[in-house]
Amino acid sequence: MNWNRRQLLLASGGAFLSLPAWVKSATDGKNIDQKFIRDIADSAKTKDLTVIYPKGCLANLKPIIQQFSKLTSVQVKLKEVGFNDITNHLLKTRLIKGRDNHFDIAIPPSFSIPDLAEADVIQEFDNDVSKMSLQDYETSLYSLGDYYADKLFGLQTSGDAYMLFLRKSWLLDKKNQDRYRQKFQRNLEIPQTWEELDRQLAFFHKPSKNQYGGCFFRHKLYMHWEYWIRLHGKGLYPCSADLRPQLTVDSSVTALEEMKSATRFLHPSCQRNGPYENFSLFNQGNCYANLSWGGWSEIFLFAKVEHQR
Fold first, then answer.
1. What is the residue-wise DSSP string for 189-218?
2. Are 129 and 246 contained in the same domain?
3. Any idea what the CATH number is for the domain that residue 15 is in?
4. What angle do CA 102, 108, 112 make, to 5 degrees?
5. pTM over 0.85
6. Cα-to-chain-centroid distance, residue 16
7. Are residues 26 and 59 in the same domain?
8. Rg (CA), the chain
9. Measuring CA to CA, which residue among 159, 155, 102, 101 is closest to residue 125?
10. Spatial contact of 281 and 268, defined as CB atoms under 8 Å apart
11. Do both 148 and 26 map to the same domain?
12. Are 50 and 105 in contact (CB under 8 A)?
């Protein structure tokens, strides 16, 4: 198999970017196609790659980079940019040429792919590379965002989607289960509806004892994402299939009212916490639930935190 530089970068990007969700096994090479890696190493015309990544994911990248370089002898140069600035930074590379703006692989949010593709900042994956990279990828939780105009432009790492995290020890505690059953005539278990989740938040909320129902990611720049999910729970999108607004219908208003009501059972710092403060708070152990970015699940690979996803 012969690889040109474009194929190498796309192929190495596929291997590189598809691994962070399995960091623990990736560090010992278990999830890596050894022949694929050898082909890259033998055919590479370059021995270094520049990767632009958002602040906050370096801990996940390091073990993968070390393993990748060990197997291929390709050195990876890292460039960190702000969590909210990476898309604009990549767009700038199209306008301002120069060594400081060069990159081979980038890790932007999936929702920026259309803008980056239209600006010709990123390239689509070649068909042969796509097939190789997607061998273990068909079970991805969320892959729609990898495509634009029916073309594959990236591979999910953590998945740019919210996940619900529950304090496992609280959920399974027999005393809690007995009290919950006695109070609500139902079992305390993983909630399947927003109504049940909000009920559990209220049940566990005891601020006088420094115990809180939740610490949802309610920062002013991101809190609307929770509303969209609550809206989906009502069977609605912001607009109908023919693009008629649906935010003023009764179910949409009810979703907002329920979200507002649940605020009473959240930690008071929720609305000012950034993404890092959000999970630092959850890791303190005094909040039952956290609705936040799914990428934080990787923390549990390394931290001794009891949880239930």
1. ----SHHHHHHHHHHH-BGGGTBEEE----
2. no
3. 3.40.190
4. 110
5. no
6. 16
7. yes
8. 22
9. 155
10. no
11. yes
12. yes
Structure tokens at 254: 């009810």
CA 179 to chain centre: 35
The order of strands in the sheet holding 212-214 is: 162-166, 287-293, 212-214
Q: What does the alpha-carbon distance between residue 183 and residue 277 come to, in Å, rounded to a whole number?
A: 33
Do 272 and 266 touch, CB atoms closer than 8 A? no
pLDDT in tens, the chain (309 residues): 333 333 333 333 333 333 333 333 444 555 556 666 666 666 665 678 899 998 878 877 888 888 888 888 888 999 999 888 999 999 988 777 666 678 888 988 888 999 999 999 998 876 655 555 555 555 555 677 788 998 888 877 665 678 899 999 999 999 999 999 999 999 999 999 999 999 999 999 999 999 999 999 999 888 999 999 999 999 999 999 899 999 999 999 999 999 999 999 999 999 999 888 898 899 899 999 999 877 666 565 555 544 444
Phi, psi of 36 (to 5 degrees): -60, -45
- Give the pLDDT confidence score for residue 45 in this predicted structure: 59
How far apart are alpha carbons 202 and 199 in whole angstroms?
A: 5
Distances (CA, A) of 247 to 111, 161, 224: 22, 22, 13
Q: Which residues contact 289 (CB under 8 A, 6 or more apart)?
A: 164, 165, 166, 167, 197, 200, 201, 204, 213, 214, 215, 216
User: From start to end of 136-254, where are the E strands?
Assistant: 147-148, 151-152, 162-166, 212-214
Distance CA 43, CA 46 (A): 9
Residues 113 and 200 in one domain: no
Name the 3-class secondary structure at 131.
Answer: helix
Place of tokens 């890696």: 37
- The residue ranges of DSSP E strands in 167-306, in sequence order, are 212-214, 287-293
CA 129/CA 15 separation, integer angstroms: 10
178 and 50 within one domain:
no
**Per-residue CA distances from 115 to 96, 144, 184 (Å):** 17, 16, 49
